[in-house]
Amino acid sequence: MSEYRYVAVDKKGKTVKGIISAPSKNEVHRILESKGLYPLEITEYKKPKIGINLNLGLSKVKDEELILFTSELATLISSGLTIVDALQGLYDQEENPYLRKIILDIKESIEAGNSISSAFKKFPDVFSSVYTSLLSVGEATGRLDKVLHGIYQYLERDLEIRRKITSAFAYPEFVVFVITGVVIFMLSVVLPRFTVMFVSAGANLPTPTRILLSISNFIRFKWFVLVAIVVIAYLIYRITYATPKGRLTIDYMKLKVPLFGRIAKFGSLSRFVRSLALISGNGYNILDGLLIASSVATNAYIIKEIEGVAHDIQSGQSFSEALSHRSFFPKVMVQMVTVGERSGLLDTSLERLSDLWDRSLDFTLKNLASRIEPALIVILGVIVGFIAVAMYLPMFTLPSLIGK
Asked: Which domain covers residue 10, as residue numbers?
């Protein structure tokens, strides 16, 4: 008896999600229909194992490897090879042992009579719901090579955007790390040496110096308290983020962070819109496309807004109307969707919108360093300046002490 996670729609058009125990997917389908539910997606659910992961990421399939695998599979099928022969060829040349095992399992599953999409769905940690859903379309229409080529282009562009966002955040993270290191060094190494000299000379330490000395002593002798605070704060964050309400609140707050929240928002929306364009352009209706494409938006608040749009569509509204009733989505998205609905080229409009946001995101990321560098320099200057003043103030009392 296995457990399966399902997404279904009831007779009123409401989306229902849950987990059910059954011997097979067909049985899950039958149980849901007996309850008056229409299943949209059924995937095997594996309970997370409690313990320490010791594989150190060695068994993970990298994004580059997945993109290369998809591209080569599309090329081999386009050349006339069957899916089984193509997978055998990729298995023979693959160097990643984990990916080799996956390819072999998929090949054997297809040879056993399973569909291509179901064989890929056995590995949700490698192949996303967008990936497997499009495979089912390609399999049904006989356009598997073209669908795989579209998936390859989507994965390549998605990786490019994520890399740009990661590299843009790397600079401020590095500067904050340097500032923290400089402050700790000055407080734990430099300041105590100056303080010993002043105290031995009988100097009366001014207030800024005493404040800084208290901080220095705390860092030097009670550093474990700081470590404990950081660890406890991290654990509280992880525990809170593990709950649906906590994750929703934290992800909403992330979107409100000046500048960085905007980057996160439009980065996620761009990935979502591009996924939706790819899915709707391959035959999925907009409702199913929204539910599938929402998985690429890693922010829980954005997913909630997308599910709200899907619910409004189930209630009889058009896609553009459902978007217009939610202030979270930019007006340009409503306009592009409206044009796409009227022209019958919704996927084209969504793809153009994604391209527009990608170019805007590129410009923002390129100018990110120039926009935050002055603020970081000011912060560093204030911190180092205060430390320098606190260390040199006692020097003004030394001449009077020497005269005595």
From this structure: 2-44
The residue out of 255, 284, 305 marking a domain boundary is: 255
The SS3 of residue 7 is strand
Each residue of 219-230: pLDDT tens digit? Answer: 888 888 989 999
CA gap 18, 255 in Å, rounded = 28
Secondary structure string (H, E, C) spanning 31-70: HHHHCCCEEEEEEECCCCCCCCCCCCCCCCCCHHHHHHHH
Q: Among 115, 140, 156, where does a domain finish?
A: 156
DSSP per-residue string spanning 136-164 = HHHHHHT-HHHHHHHHHHHHHHHHHHHHH
Q: Which pLDDT tens digit goes with each residue over 307-337?
A: 899 899 988 899 999 999 888 999 999 999 9
Task: State how many domains the chain has.
Answer: 4
Task: For the beta carbon of residue 189, count every other beta carbon within 10 angstroms.
Answer: 11
Task: Output the domain CATH number for residue 270.
Answer: 1.20.81.30
For the full predicted model, state whether its pTM sits above 0.70: no
Distance, in Å, from the CA atom of 272 to the CA atom of 256, rounded to the nearest integer, reads 19
d(CA 225, CA 221): 9
Distances (CA, A) of 375 to 100, 172, 382: 49, 10, 11
